[in-house]
Amino acid sequence: MKPWAMLWCAVAFCVSGCASHTAAQRAPLSELFHDQLFQAPAAPIDTTAIFAVSERMRDYLKHNLVQRGAGQDPRRALFDALYTRDQLKLEYDSAMTRNAAETFDARAGNCLSLVIMTAALARELNFTVQFQQIQMDESWSRSGNLYFAANHVNLMLGKKRTAYLDGYQVNTANALTVDFIPIPPKARESARLLEEHTIVAMYLNNRAAELLSAGSIDDAYWAARQAVQADPGFMNGYNTLAVIYQNHGNPMQAEQTLRYALRQAPDNTIYLSNLAQTLESLQRPAEAAAVRERLARLEPFPPFHFFRLGLEAVELGDYQRARNLFERELERSPDYHEFHYWLAVTHYQLGNLRAADKHMRKALENSTTRGQNDLYAAKLDRIRAHEAKVIK
């Protein structure tokens, strides 16, 4: 088993489980932080830059958006710019969680990045904004030997503030909801409001996960530490911190942090899975087995269960069994690109070129980074070249 982590609105990348958020709780920070184990960060994350508006963003609002939106609700002008390809030209890219200015310059980002950029532009125009967590099943992905669960956030654009005393509360009846992935209507109805400090914690948590995945474990620690400080009630930050301890070779600190998180969310399967791995690394097999028994009752077939078995079958050259296992995983997550990719591989090995073409196209359509897109496009070209030879 591999460590589990969770990201927010990085629909294919995330560190830690989906714990409940209890804003009133205050963590024993001095007990859970172990700064002496890590080197100083190469470049500390400046949280004031997360929502900061750059001069290029101001120029865009002044010379493009305002002129295009003359005579209409300015909120609608911004809303339309976010979705119209000939204006902001935004592209979904889950590879990195960017701040507002970085997202604007790249014209690309994951959901959280795009929400942050939109909020920064809206506030520059003096609109009210309200962040929301959307109640949906987590989407799962992996990067190397880390597995990630992603939740989703969006925001509502309220009307312009006409005076300082108006406050920043959004009238949801008149708000425009900005979202960058399709959301079921029922999920919108059950959305939970979020404060800005939780969005900051989510951003820092995502950066910690991304840094960990890239091998920058010291920098990842400091980002996760900042996430917990930004919102001590954001439980996913503690799981990320624990995964960092695990990867840094500090299982005692990982156990301490996970047990704190589990006191707040006792049935969180991701925290439990990470705790079982931590106990095993501490040579406490009986305790680990008890945790795994509890896990099995809560979640008999965790995410990627059939996928991992499928990869084992591929290594043994049993492509028919691998295909069946990948199909079972795909039934649970029909849009995950890597499941389609490996189904394409098994069909190719079995000589089913038409099915291989179909699933590689699906992998390409559902890719969430430019790197994935390029890889799948090249593989699809290879399959089609082979198909052409067979037809001849």
The end-to-end span amounts to 46 Å
| Contiguous uncertain segments of 5+ residues | 6-24, 163-168
Percent of residues in helices comes to: 40-55%
The overall number of domains is 2
* Multimeric state: single chain
Q: Could you say what the CATH architecture of the largest domain is?
A: Alpha Horseshoe
Structure description:
The chain has 392 residues and is α/β, with parallel strands linked by helices. It folds into 2 domains: 1-301, Alpha Horseshoe (Serine Threonine Protein Phosphatase 5, Tetratricopeptide repeat); 305-391, Alpha Horseshoe (Serine Threonine Protein Phosphatase 5, Tetratricopeptide repeat), CATH 1.25.40. The chain is built from 17 helices and 7 strands. The protein has helices at 29-32, 55-68, 74-83, 100-106, 111-124, 185-189, 196-213, 217-230, 236-248, 251-264, 269-281, 285-298, 305-315, 319-332, 337-349, 353-365, 370-391; strands spanning 4-8, 91-92, 108-109, 127-143, 146-160, 176-178, 192-194. The strands form 2 sheets. Strands 1, 4, 5, 6 and 7 form a 5-stranded mixed sheet that branches. The protein has a two-stranded parallel ribbon with strand order 2-3. It starts with a strand and ends with a helix. The model is unreliable at 6-24 and 163-168 (pLDDT under 50).
How are the elements arranged and paired?
Elements: E1 4-8, H1 29-32, H2 55-68, H3 74-83, E2 91-92, H4 100-106, E3 108-109, H5 111-124, E4 127-143, E5 146-160, E6 176-178, H6 185-189, E7 192-194, H7 196-213, H8 217-230, H9 236-248, H10 251-264, H11 269-281, H12 285-298, H13 305-315, H14 319-332, H15 337-349, H16 353-365, H17 370-391
Parallel strand pairs: 1-5, 2-3
Antiparallel strand pairs: 4-5, 4-7, 5-6
